[in-house]
Design brief:
Blueprint: E1 9-14, H1 21-29, E2 34-38, H2 42-53, H3 68-93, E3 101-105, H4 113-119, E4 124-129, H5 132-143, H6 147-167, E5 173-177, H7 178-183, H8 185-196, H9 202-211, H10 227-230, H11 235-238, H12 241-250, H13 252-257
Parallel strand pairs: 1-3, 1-4, 2-3, 4-5
Helix pairs in contact: 2-3, 5-6
């Protein structure tokens, strides 16, 4: 059987949790030339076990008492082959051919960015950002936590992605705002496809238009809603003036960069 990934390039979605990474992955995966998985964690898990194996029992791994550095090196050498084989099987199981781009979306890829770069130095990234105040509101609801904890989560992951994007060849990173894509899926996807040098056919266009306003976290709910009404500027109802001021003061550079203030 031919290798569906033979001429394909790795493509990863970056973004803080609750910033639209799920939506973006589902939309990109609609294109026949892209296989974009939803949080397989394959890369995170490999990176984690390679790092921990090197230290054996000191890292909490049971029975890791001998040849741990050698075993860690072996895992690192085998990682790319195993991951590629895994995605090849995904393509086969879904009858996907002529794939141009493949990869995974996971908000916590910030923890394994050096690993991704070592394995795939020619990979591309789509980086989605969102008003941190709205992201924090969504994190509070998802994690059932307070404002301080939600801000810490946002700040740590956002800072990791910002540093990575600043130090990486900008031609390999496409950045977009959540607020722009939810307003018009097709408009922003056309720009991404142009960046990826992928054609858009009538079938893809129709599928995307039908997904406008679809809740990708609840695939069984086919009702549509207006993202601009439900998820954009939700902080105005959910954050106190003091909490808003805290985010403005603490994340001013980020918010100015992406035109949120």
């Amino acid at each position: 059987m031919s290798d569906a990934l033979e001429n394909a390039r790795p493509l990863f979605i970056l973004g803080v949790p609750r910033s639209g990474t799920t939506m973006l992955a589902r939309l990109l995966n609609t294109h026949t030339g892209i296989v974009q998985t939803y949080e397989t964690a394959a890369f995170l898990l490999f990176d984690h076990i390679i790092k921990n194996t090197k230290h054996g029992v000191k890292s909490g791994i049971y029975y890791g008492k001998e040849y741990q550095e050698l075993w860690s090196e072996q895992l690192a050498q085998a990682a790319k082959s195993i991951i590629n084989s895994f995605y090849q099987k995904i393509c086969e199981s879904e009858n996907r051919h002529n794939v141009r781009y493949w990869g995974d979306k996971h908000p916590h890829h910030n923890a394994c960015l050096p690993f991704l770069e070592r394995l795939y130095p020619n990979s591309l990234y789509v980086y989605i950002v969102r008003d941190p105040r709205d992201t924090i509101c969504s994190i509070i609801k998802m994690n059932d936590c307070g404002m301080d904890e939600a801000f810490k989560i946002w700040s740590k992951i956002a800072n990791d992605y910002e540093k990575f994007c600043e130090s990486t060849d900008h031609s390999r990173i496409y950045t977009l705002r959540y607020e722009d894509i939810v307003q018009d899926y097709m408009d922003k996807l056309e720009a991404i496809m142009d960046w990826l040098d992928l054609e858009i056919d009538d079938n893809f266009r129709e599928l995307i238009i039908n997904k406008q306003g679809f809740d990708f976290h609840n695939p069984n709910d086919t009702s549509q809603f207006n993202f601009n009404e439900r998820s954009v500027a939700r902080w105005k109802q959910n954050l106190t003036p003091q909490e808003n001021s805290h985010v403005l003061n603490s994340a001013s550079e980020y918010m100015e960069k992406y035109h949120y203030i």
